[in-house]
Amino acid sequence: MVDSTEHDDLLFAMLKECKTLPIFLNHIFGFLNRRTDFYHIATDPNCPVGLPPGLAEQTVKQIFYKWKPDDKTVEKPPTPPDTPSASKPKKQPPDPKFTPSDSYNGATYEHYSWSQTLLEVDVVAKIPENTTAKDLSVKIATDRIEVKLKDGTVVLEGELCEKCKHNDAIWSLERNKLCIHLDKSREVWWNCLVKSEPKLDISSLDCSRPYEELSEEAQAKIEELQWNQERKRLGLPTSDELQMQDILKRSWNCEGSPFSGPYDPSTVKFN
């Protein structure tokens, strides 16, 4: 899971140079236009480059509300003692112990929160203060996860939504939190962490993929789009226009060509 504060110093320095938020945001979206396929509309659903119509706007809106602070602070009532139950875990309101990134493309429950990308899953579970590794029992199988305290208290238990690469699972303690990282066995979006949870609406997830996870072909196409956008900004011909000019130059004086004399592309108008 990417640390959302990793680039704070760089972004803050940029903000100070821009002086105002509108100018700062203008630079951000200008960069997306010049150097990425963010504004490129993918008309073919199988195209690895570009976004489906409307997804760019939807993504910006989702991220805006993801980081929007709550206007009201509601005091939570005391939590009753846990009792054994087979009922589904209830989705919880925002918990100050969990950050928005802890439930990115996932959900938050009473004792834990989980997030996902197309390739991996991260779980953050609340544990008592001063808990050590010896006080925990963490068992991760291909299709099941179990986290218990030494006294038998269940923190998280159930059958996973999909299979994971259990041999590559990693867990660590950070203050009063247990962090678990799982690699998915296949590239698919999970609609829950464990099957006893309420199911997520997959269509509401941010399904964009990081640049480095794209195929070499897709990365090359994005770089070509970036190059063409920069050429357009400078008033220079794009790759398609250069290719057309090359074909025109080679066929200029060929037999049957409507052109003759020295090569002069300015006399040709392309539609």
From TrEMBL:
GO molecular function: unfolded protein binding
Annotated region (Disordered), positions in chain: 70-102
Keyword Phosphoprotein: yes
Superkingdom classification of source: Eukaryota
Domain CS: 107-194
A Gene Ontology BP annotation from the UniProt entry: protein folding
InterPro entries found in the cross-reference section: CS_dom, HSP20-like_chaperone, NudC_fam, NudC_N_dom
Subcellular location: Cytoplasm
Entry keyword Phosphoprotein: yes
Keywords (A to Z) from UniProt: Cytoplasm, Phosphoprotein
GO cellular component term, pick one: cytoplasm
Transmembrane stretches, start-end: none
Protein family (similarity comment): Belongs to the nudC family.
Alphabetical list of PANTHER family matching this protein: NUCLEAR MIGRATION PROTEIN NUDC, NUCLEAR MOVEMENT PROTEIN NUDC
The name this protein goes by in its record: Nuclear migration protein nudC
Taxonomic source organism: Tribolium castaneum (Red flour beetle)
Lineage: Eukaryota, Metazoa, Ecdysozoa, Arthropoda, Hexapoda
